[in-house]
């Protein structure tokens, strides 16, 4: 993977980046990442960094399912025999998709070389506060802030004392004083030093300052015949602790719940080559499946023919017709929550041709239509296996709320997500949706209208409502 040295960019680009990152309160490196991401996703901010910032969004940015955010760490290697383990730590961090930039104190260089750290991190290594090359643009400030986390391993008694007292007389301590990022320390020292009253005071102070400590472990020391608490944690333990700070575990409010979702159109055959269909893309149902999976649910998605990839971790049952969809839905029960987002064809051809229908002089072949089973109504009215929460959709082109309310009553579901699908809205096949959530409260129907959102945001919002309802009503688990 190529790395980009901002210092080597030409002055106009550098000035632009500095102004834009200052305006957005991001580090220059973060800003470059945002620009690249925007370019790849086809979104473009105006080229002037002085343009008004976009209005803050009230809804959370959806995390692409399965995506692991890139992160970066400044790793300060202190001077102790445990420094050799920090070389392994670089590899453990990198295999977790965490970029590492190393800073070696003077004492650390007695134990490991900058060359080894550089070869493993694939980055330049920093050793000197007064390095004219990196300090011309305040390199220690960049090392302190152009990262998501600072890890100090080994954190020697001396480094911890300097940090607790706000010293800044070398590159490592200057970075630690200048940072606004979380700091993780992996102490390593002789047990007597660890238990010394001065170190105890420093540890208490550092913890009060919000610094996180991992270890030290107890065991044998490098010094012959000595043992006790003071061994640096293993590289893997430090890497895991760093990852927990960088990527805190996402809450899983639907853990243990089984969610059944229908999505997409259905195709109702006329003859072996023709069918009746509609314009549903399946995007909304697939987004709900991904959001429910991310919330910890076991998700079964019964989908009509669509051009979408299965969301990671979701079981997809592919069907063509409404009758096949009903069969798969019934086979997937019991479920705790059922969401019927499919645009099921209301009718199918009664007399489906066994061979391709031919044009004849007698005119158009008569197509007799019969009604399809209503999957939502069928499941809502089940006596035994009815899921405790059943949600339908109402895609309407007129009288949206009235039609949706009567659907809620007629079909017997608990909630209806109503959306306007008139061609002017671009909802069918598009990426955005404006929805109204209709439910019942004390026997009355209530309408909660949401602002226009992407289909992923609608999915996240709907899953958040479901999670709240699940915790309020503590739905009985499906059995
Ligand atoms: O097509 P209609 O407007 O009646 O759809 C409303 C809701 O009923 C949607 O949730 C849809 O998935 C569901 N439905 C169904 N089976 C049908 C027709 C609609 O499950 N045959």
Can you give keywords for this protein?
479 residues, alpha/beta, Rossmann fold, eight-stranded mixed β-sheet, five-stranded parallel β-sheet, 16 helices, binds cytidine-5'-monophosphate
Describe the structure.
It is a single chain. It contains 16 helices and 21 strands. Residues 44-67 have low confidence and may be disordered. 34% of the residues lie in helices and 21% in strands. The protein has two domains: 71-246, Rossmann fold (3-Layer(aba) Sandwich), CATH 3.40.50; 258-348 and 369-473, Rossmann fold. It is of the alpha/beta class. Strand 1, helix 3 and strand 2 form a beta-alpha-beta unit. The chain has helices at residues 11-23, 28-41, 83-94, 114-121, 132-135, 139-145, 157-165, 171-178, 191-195, 197-208, 235-246, 283-294, 322-332, 375-380, 400-411, 455-473; strands at residues 71-77, 98-104, 149-155, 182-187, 212-213, 217-220, 227-231, 258-263, 268-271, 274-276, 298-303, 315-318, 337-340, 347-349, 369-371, 389-396, 415-420, 432-433, 435-441, 444-449, 453-454. The chain is elongated and about 95 Å long. The strands form six sheets. An eight-stranded mixed β-sheet has the order 12-11-8-13-16-17-19-20, sandwiched between helices. The structure holds cytidine-5'-monophosphate. Residues 262, 322, 340, 342, 344, 346, 372, 374-376, 392-394, 407 line the site of cytidine-5'-monophosphate.
């Amino acid at each position: 993977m190529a790395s980009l040295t901002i210092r080597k960019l030409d002055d106009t680009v550098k000035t632009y980046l500095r102004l834009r990152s200052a305006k957005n309160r991001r580090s220059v490196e973060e800003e470059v990442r945002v620009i690249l991401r925007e370019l790849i996703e086809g979104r473009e901010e105006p080229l002037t960094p002085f343009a008004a910032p976009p209005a803050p969004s009230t809804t959370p940015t959806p995390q692409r399912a399965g995506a692991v955010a890139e992160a970066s760490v400044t790793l300060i290697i202190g001077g102790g025999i445990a420094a050799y383990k920090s070389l392994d730590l670089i590899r453990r961090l990198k295999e977790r998709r965490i970029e590492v930039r190393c800073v070696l104190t003077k004492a650390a260089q007695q134990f490991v070389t900058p060359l080894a750290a550089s070869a493993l991190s694939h980055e330049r290594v920093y050793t000197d506060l007064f390095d004219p090359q990196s300090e011309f643009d305040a390199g220690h400030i960049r090392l302190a802030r152009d990262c998501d986390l600072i890890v100090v391993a080994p954190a020697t008694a001396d480094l911890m004392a300097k940090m607790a007292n706000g010293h800044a007389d070398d590159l490592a301590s200057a970075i630690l004083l200048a940072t606004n990022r979380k700091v993780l320390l992996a102490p390593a020292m002789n047990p007597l030093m660890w238990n010394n009253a001065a170190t105890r005071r420093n540890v208490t102070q550092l913890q009060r300052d919000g610094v996180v400590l991992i270890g030290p472990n107890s065991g044998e020391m490098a010094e012959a015949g000595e043992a006790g608490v003071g061994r640096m944690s293993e590289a893997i333990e430090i890497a895991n602790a760093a990852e927990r700070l960088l990527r805190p575990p996402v809450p899983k409010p639907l853990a243990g719940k089984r969610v059944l979702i229908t999505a997409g159109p259905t195709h109702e055959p006329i003859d072996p080559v023709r069918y009746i269909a509609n314009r549903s893309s399946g995007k909304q149902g697939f987004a709900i499946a991904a959001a429910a999976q991310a919330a910890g649910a076991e998700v079964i998605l019964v989908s009509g023919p669509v051009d979408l990839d299965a969301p990671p971790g979701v079981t997809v049952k592919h069907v063509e017709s409404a009758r096949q969809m009903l069969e798969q839905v019934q086979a997937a029960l019991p479920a705790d929550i059922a969401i019927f987002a499919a645009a099921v064809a209301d009718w199918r051809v009664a007399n489906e041709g066994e061979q391709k229908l031919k044009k004849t002089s007698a005119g158009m072949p008569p197509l007799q239509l019969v009604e399809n089973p209503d999957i939502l109504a069928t499941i809502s009215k089940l006596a035994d296996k009815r899921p405790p929460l059943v949600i339908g959709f109402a895609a309407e082109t007129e009288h949206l709320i009235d039609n949706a309310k009567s659907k809620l009553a007629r079909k017997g579901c608990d909630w209806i997500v109503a959306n306007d699908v008139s061609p002017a809205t671009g909802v069918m096949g598009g990426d955005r949706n404006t929805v109204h959530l209709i439910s019942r409260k004390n026997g009355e129907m209530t309408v909660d209208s949401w602002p226009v959102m992407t289909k992923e945001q609608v999915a996240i919002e709907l899953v958040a409502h479901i999670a709240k309802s699940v915790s309020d009503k503590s739905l009985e688990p499906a059995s």
